Structures are given as structure tokens and as C-alpha cells.
Amino acid sequence: MGAILGPQDSFLLIRGIKTLAMRMDRHLENTEEILEFLQTNPNVVKIYHPSLLDHPNHILAYTQSKGSVGMISFVLDDSIHINIFLSSLKTISLAESLGGIESLISHPASMTHASYPAAYRASIGIVDQLIRLSVGCEHYSDLIDDLMQAFALARVL
After folding, report:
1. How far apart are CA 71 and CA 50, in angstroms?
2. What confidence score (pLDDT) does residue 99 get?
């Protein structure tokens, strides 16, 4: 009892630390590639990421860290049906838990912030078309292909 890890948890922690640098390198490389893809995608109207020059905390982020972060938030154009987009993803999983080795996506308006009134959500930037993506360690081309096919299926004519 107390703040002591059990033997299995300790083993997993030690094993994970051995590959942490390699996983972080892949995580950040993937994030940069996905950011580049999103910046040129006509389905995306706004991207929130501290590596972007228009982010309000861009300078602060780079004075406090060595690199970037693997969490991207972005707002989709109204021509994209959110539910179809999210359910069409094959490689990226829909989940509220973020930060694992696999890429996970969430829709804050219907998941983490669903209990807040729409007007309040909008006032803090959580619009209905907002998506959060925690970029994992899969190959970035697989992630981009997954996003592309979901955009194609979710386009409302």
C-alpha cells in the first residue's frame, strides 16, 4: 500500500523508458508531417499547435521545450460531416484517452465537453467542428492516408 509500484508495473516502466527517445522522435516527426498535410488541406479552417507561428504561445513553447508536441487540434470546414469523418477512420482510433503510442482522435463537443452548453463551449473555442488528434508512432503516411480517406467519405455535398 502506498506510492510504490508493483513488480510488473516497475518492469513495464523500465522497459518503456528504454525506447522513450525513439518513440518521441517518431511521434514528433509524424506530427510535423501531419501538420504540413493539414495546413494545405481545404477541409481544415483552423489549426492549433504551438509550432505554428500564429499560435499565441509559440514563443513560450519554444523557450520551455526542446521540440514540439504531438497534440494537434483543428477545426473542420462545415462541408465535413463530423460523425462520418470520425467513424470512417481506420488507423486512427476514436478515444478520449490521449497520449499513447497509437494515434487517437477525439471530438470534444460530443465527448470530453459534451456536458457544457453549446454557447459556453463556443466561447472557449470548443466549436462543433473541433477535432483533437494525439499523434502516435504509426508511419505518418498511413495516418495521412487515413485522414484523406475519411475526408473524402465525410464531405457533404
Report:
1. 9
2. 62
